[in-house]
Amino acid sequence: MRFSNLAERQILKAQAEGKLDSLKGAGKPLASTDASTDAVGFRIMAEAGALPREIQLRKAIEEQTRILQGLASEARAPEQAKLADLQLRLAIEQEARRRFQGS
Q1: pLDDT digit string (tens) for 14-72?
Q2: Widest pairwise Cα distance in the chain
Q3: Which of 18, 41, 65, 87 is the most buried (most CB within 10 A)?
Q4: Is residue 81 helix, strand or coil?
Q5: How far, in Å, CA of 99 to CA of 5, rounded?
Q6: CB 86, CB 60: distance < 8 Å
């Protein structure tokens, strides 16, 4: 499965949830550009507020890092475990994307 297929799934999911109903230019054809279909799909997803999982995980990692910076050493262990889990999930998502793009 290609990355563009994953983007298409995300678009269809956002469509089913009604997130694409109130977009600017809804119902009109997309402007003709030289951009790839992936770029167009990502633009549509961004306008609808449907972020790819990798981006969601990166934001969560940034937030968890900020949380850790403000904690005393005795309260850090559970929060460090959460950060490690988020980092692992991001690595899995990135590897999955690499494999899909390669097929």
Answers
A1: 888 888 777 777 777 766 555 566 677 777 877 888 888 888 899 999 999 999 998 88
A2: 57
A3: 41
A4: helix
A5: 13
A6: yes
Amino acid at 92: I
The torsion region of residue 25 among left (phi > 0), alpha (psi -120 to 50) and beta comes to left
The CA distances from residue 71 to 34, 37, 66, 78, 83, in Å, are: 48, 44, 9, 11, 13
> 96 is written with which tokens?
């999955």
Domain ranges of the chain: 1-50, 52-103
**Site of tokens 């990692």:** 61
Tell me which residue has tokens 């995300």.
10
CB atoms within 10 A of CB 10: 19
> 49 — alpha (psi -120 to 50), left (phi > 0) or beta?
left
